[in-house]
Amino acid sequence: MATAGAGAPAITASSSSFVSYSPFSLRAWRTSHRQPAGRASVNVRCVSSPPAADTSYKTKVPRNANMAKLQAGYLFPERAHALSTIDGYSGYGAEQGEKKLRSAIAATYYPDLGIEDADIFVSDGAKCDISRLQVLFGSNVSIAVQDPSYPAYVDSSVIMGQTGLYQQDVQKYGNIEYMRCTPENGFFPDLSTVARTDVIFFCSPNNPTGAAASRDQLTKLVKFAKDNGSIIVYDSAYAMYISDDSPKSIFEIPGAKEVAIETASFSKYAGFTGVRLGWTVVPKELLFSDGHPVAKDFNRIVCTSFNGASNIAQAGGLACLSPEGLKAMRDVVGFYKENTEIIVDTFTSLGFNVYGAKNAPYVWVHFPGRNSWDVFAEILEKANVVTTPGSGFGPGGEGFVRVSAFGHRDNIIEAARRLKQLYK
Amino acid sequence: MATAGAGAPAITASSSSFVSYSPFSLRAWRTSHRQPAGRASVNVRCVSSPPAADTSYKTKVPRNANMAKLQAGYLFPERAHALSTIDGYSGYGAEQGEKKLRSAIAATYYPDLGIEDADIFVSDGAKCDISRLQVLFGSNVSIAVQDPSYPAYVDSSVIMGQTGLYQQDVQKYGNIEYMRCTPENGFFPDLSTVARTDVIFFCSPNNPTGAAASRDQLTKLVKFAKDNGSIIVYDSAYAMYISDDSPKSIFEIPGAKEVAIETASFSKYAGFTGVRLGWTVVPKELLFSDGHPVAKDFNRIVCTSFNGASNIAQAGGLACLSPEGLKAMRDVVGFYKENTEIIVDTFTSLGFNVYGAKNAPYVWVHFPGRNSWDVFAEILEKANVVTTPGSGFGPGGEGFVRVSAFGHRDNIIEAARRLKQLYK
C-alpha cells in the first residue's frame, strides 16, 4: 500500500490523480511497480501471505501457466490513500474493495473463522467473480457441478475451453462431472460415484433446488476435496436464507480454508440485484499444487481485469452491514421467506411434492414424468405465471420447475390463486 | 425481449421476481430460452443482426471454438420489462445496459455513423471490457499493441494464453506484435513493418503518450486491418480531450464497422473513475472468418460473465448525456486541459521535450538516455511528486515519464513549483 511507509507527505500522480498528499513509501512503490526485467519480480503488495512452507497442504490443482508468465504486478495497483480523503471523493478505489467494507464483511459473515480482511475481494457480484475465477484457473482444469445447478458455472467453463463438446444424448458437456442431486439423495451427491476434478462448484443453499447442505454433508465434501486435492468454489449467495443449523459458510468446516473459495452476494439480501455488489473469499491457506497461493493469482486477475465495484455500491454495502442495515436485510429475507411459504402451501395443497424452500427463496416443484419446458409453457399459457424450467439448470432438473419467491406480496397471492385454478 | 409480444398481461417469475405484470411473448421466451437438445439452437434475441450474406466482408479472425460449443443462450437473459416500472425499481437490468442509456450513447457519440443502440454494450468500464473481449477471442489469436500502451491489453493477453514467455532481453512477451510509437514517427506505427495479427489494440488519444491519431493515420490503420483481415479494438477512453480535428471515434473512418470494435468510458469525462461505467461498440457488420457476427458472441459473454453495470451508475451516465451533463463534462475536460497546459509549460520552460498533452490529459516527458524508473525515483524522492515511469507501458516507453493532469489545481501548481526547483 502507498500508505505503508511513514515518509514525508508526497505529491502523487497515480493514473487518476497528478497530485495529492499522502504518506508514501518509495520502497513499497518500487517493489510493487518493479519493471519486469533486471529486478526482482516479487509484488510485495499483491497479497500479504507468507511464502508457503513445504509442510503446507497443497491442492493438486496446477497453477495456470499463463498466470506464471506475467511479470511483476499490474502497473497501477497502488492508489494514493489521500484520494479518499481530499474532497471525500475516492476516484479509482482499491480493486479489491474499500478497506472498511472488507473489514465489515469479515466481521459480519466470518467471525471467529480465521478469515481476514485481506482474504476478501469485493466484487460486482458473484456471477462476475465466477467468470473471473474461471479465467484464473485457465483452460486446463476439470470441473464438477451439482446437477441441477446455476448455469454460470457450466457456461463459463465451456467458454474457457475446459470442456468437450455438448453431447445431445445425455444433455451434458464432455469433461464436466455432473453430480446428480435428487430427492432420493437429499440433493447431496453420492460422492463415492463422483470422479476427481480440479474444481468443484458447489452452491448451498442451492439454486435451483433450494437445498442447503448440512454440516455433516459439507464435512464430507471438504474431506472429498482434500483427499482429491480439489478446490471447492462454494457459492453462498443465499446463505442468509438458512433457517436451520446448516452452515452459512464453507469455512465453518474445519480445514476448508485449505481447499475452498467462497463467493457471495448482496443481491438477494438487500435488493441489490441491479446495484452489483458481492465478494469472494480466497483464504491465504489455499495453494496450487506448486505451492503458489491462489489468492495471489486471483489478486492479479482482479487488478488486471476489474477496477473494483462501483464506489456507490460499496458505500451501500457498508450501510447494509450496520446494525440498522443488518436488521433491514433480515426483514427483507423474512418477507421473501413468507412468500416462499405461500408458494409451498399452494403447491402442497394441490398435491405436488415440493423441495427446497426452507433455507432458500426457491421452491423446487416436482412434476414427475413431465418435460420441464412443457410444464413451464402450461403454467405460462394457462395461468400467465412464469416459472423457470428445471432442465435449464442441467439434465438433473428435468421434471421440475423452479418457483422464485422474489416478488411483491400481491403478485405472489395472485399467482397462487391462478395456480390453484389451473391445477385444482 | 419479454416485451416483444403483445399478449395479455402475464405474471412473470424471472430469476429475480416471481410475479410482475408485463406483456409477454411465449414464442420469444421459448426461442431464447430454448433448451439445448432437440430444438433449434438459435437465440433470436441475442443480437438483432441478420445472418451474414456470403458477400459480406469477413475478417480472417477465427471464431473462438469454445464459444461455438455453447448451446443456445444463457438461461436468464430475459427480463420482464415491468421490473423497471413497478415501484420504479429495476432489479437485474439488461446485461447489455439500460435501453435509454444505450440510445443516448449512440445519439451523443455516434450521430450519423450508422451505429445503432443494439450495437452498444454498456459496461462497468473499458478495462473490464478489454478482458471480456479477450475471453471472447480466446487463446488462439495473436495481438498487436502500440508500444508504449496501457498495460491491460498485454496483461490480459498473457492471462488468456495468447502469448509466449516474457523475453527479458527485449522486455517483450513472445507472440505479441509491439508497434513502436516514437517522436520520430509521430507516435503512429510504421505499418509497413508490422506483422499481421488477428487483433490490433489501438488507443487514441493514447495512454500514455497522449498522441491522437489523425484521420489520415486512422484511414491507414483501417485499411491495414482490412487488408489483413484483422480486428481493431479501438480504445477511445480519452476522445473528449481531442481539441483538433482528429476523429473521436474509429467509426468516422469509412469501412471501420467491418473491422473494428470501440471501447469507451465515462471515467475521464465525468469523474466516474470509481463509479465504473463505460461501453463497448460491436457493430453488427463485424464478422469472424466463418461469417459469425462478433457481436453475437460478445453478447453471450456479457450475459454469462457479467450482469450489467450498476443501475445507479447507469442513471448517472444518462444524466451525463443530458445537455446539462454534457456541459458539465466539457467543463471537467476543460479544467484538466488547463492543468495539462501548466504541466507542459513547466517542463518546456525547463528545457524538456514534451509530447501528447494537446488532445489528452497526459504529458509524455522525454529524458533522453535515462532509465524511466530512475527518473521516476528522482522526481519522487527529491520533489515528492509521483509520475509514472514510461517503461511500465512497454519497452518503447523507456526514457520517458508520463505526467497526469488529473488533480486539484493547487496541487498541480505546487508540483510545478517543486519540479522547477528540482530541474532549474
UniProtKB/TrEMBL annotation, chains A, B:
It comes from the Eukaryota. NCBIfam families: DAPAT_plant. The keyword Transferase applies. The keyword Transferase applies. Belongs to the class-I pyridoxal-phosphate-dependent aminotransferase family. LL-diaminopimelate aminotransferase subfamily. The gene is ga26021. GO terms for biological process: systemic acquired resistance, salicylic acid mediated signaling pathway. Keywords: Aminotransferase, Pyridoxal phosphate, Transferase. GO terms for molecular function: pyridoxal phosphate binding; transaminase activity. Residues 84-419 form the Aminotransferase class I/classII large domain. It comes from Eleusine coracana subsp. coracana. Its cofactor is pyridoxal 5'-phosphate. This is Aminotransferase class I/classII large domain-containing protein.
